Amino acid sequence: MNVNTAAKITQQLLAAGHAVAATDEEADAIIFNTCCVRNTAEQKILSHIALAKQLKRQKPNLKIAVIGCLSAKRKINGVDILLGTDNAMDVVEKLGVAMQPLAPEANATAYIDITYGCDNYCSYCIVPYVRGHLRIRPYDEIIAEFNQVKDTAKNIYLLGQNVNEYPDFPKLLAELAEQPGDFNLHFLSAHPKDFDLETIKVMARYPKIAHDVHLPMQSGCDKILKLMNRKYTVTDYLEKVKLLREYMPDIHITTDIICGFPGETDEDFDATVEVVKQIKFSAAYIFPYSNRSGTVADKMSGQVPFHTRKARATKLVEIMRKMS
Ligand code: SF4
Predict the structure, then answer these.
(1) Closest-CA residue to 115 (of 95, 78, 142, 89)
(2) To test ligand 1's pocket by mutation, which of 191, 194, 229 has the most ligand atoms within 8 angstroms of CB?
(3) Strand partners, 30
(4) pLDDT value for 81
(5) SS (H, E, C) 113-155
(6) What residues pair up with 159 in beta bridges, in sequence order?
(7) Which residue of 37, 61, 80, 311 is 20 to 30 Å from 267, comparing CA positions?
(8) Ligand 1, closest atom to CA 189?
(9) Over the stretch 221-269, which tens digit does the pLDDT of each residue have?
(10) 86 pLDDT more than 90
(11) Partners of 32 in the beta sheet?
(12) Mutate which of 35, 125, 126 to test ligand 1's pocket (most atoms within 8 Å of Cβ)?
């Protein structure tokens, strides 16, 4: 989603005659498009912003803009423009550039938002607090954007925190896959609790839908999945993997896994390792659990020491590396 927003802002500024500066020192404006899903991302961006503020002391006309979810989470002093995710595009006008109705750039990859925000409140996740409630993008808007990109983009991604919450997602997917054009259709991300057989059947039926799915498992232990408020069990997850492989033997399944979630014992972690070995994902994004203030998990008892979280993540990364 951030890649998509950044590309649209860049396109507006380039169309108005601006250029991308080679270095911060040469820039008239620095735009930080932020993510605060993980604590390390937040700390990194704060140190980059501090450097930009130092630069501004030598170059008072430099404009600093901070957009995206970090701006919704905390107050940031000493910057010129501060905008959340919903109005991030307003940065263009706030920099004194009039927005123009531009056709999306002829890129090999195009991203189309189909939903915004999230109401699932997974107990570790800050997204519902910084991106707001689930909003469904009007169907006509999705189709209009799709028609603009389908002749130039090779890969088109439908985006949502949980695309399966789009009303009748399989129908939307099928309708887009029926359109003429030489494109591959993808979607990001699916949610194991809502990802259904109908979607799998549509994926298998239409050649333009890529046989890849990102299905974040997060843990291979039911106790931890419950604490995470994920609303599926390991058995449910395995069943979806089985169906995917039945309908599409060449399917690429990727996932996300959090290691060292509060309450996770060595045995719970071992259960995750076993499921990972059993499923044989094409790739997995494995992270030590990151506390986010304001979330339910941050206040849970049984917080796992950071070195244990890290050691488990390192072990799982190594197992995945060997398997892939
Ligand atoms: S579904 Fe995804 S975005 Fe929504 S709360 Fe859960 S992890 Fe966060």
Answers:
(1) 142
(2) 191
(3) 64
(4) 96
(5) ECEECCCCCCCCCCHHHHHCCCEECCHHHHHHHHHHHCCCCCE
(6) 113, 188
(7) 37
(8) 2
(9) 999 999 999 999 999 999 999 999 999 999 999 999 999 999 999 999 9
(10) no
(11) 66
(12) 125
Q: Which one-letter amino acid corresponds to residue 182? A: D
For residue 103, pLDDT over 80 is answered with no
Asked if residue 207 has pLDDT above 80, the reply is: yes
- Per-domain residue ranges for the chain? 2-94, 109-323
C-beta neighbour count of 166 within 10 angstroms: 22
Provide the residue type at 261 as one letter.
Answer: F
Site to probe by mutation for ligand 1, drawn from 69, 73, 122 as the one with most ligand atoms within 8 Å of Cβ, is: 122
Would you call 316 helix, strand, or coil by DSSP? Answer: helix
Q: Rounded CA gap, 173 and 139, in Å?
A: 12
The rounded radius of gyration (Å) of the Cα atoms in the chain is 21
133 Cβ contact partners less than 8 Å away, ≥ 6 residues apart: 117, 118, 119
Distance from the CA of 160 to the center of ligand 1, in angstroms? 10
Which CATH number fits the domain 109-323, given the four candidates 3.80.30.20, 3.10.450.320, 3.10.50.30, 3.30.460.90? 3.80.30.20
Ligand 1, atom 1: closest residue by C-alpha? 120
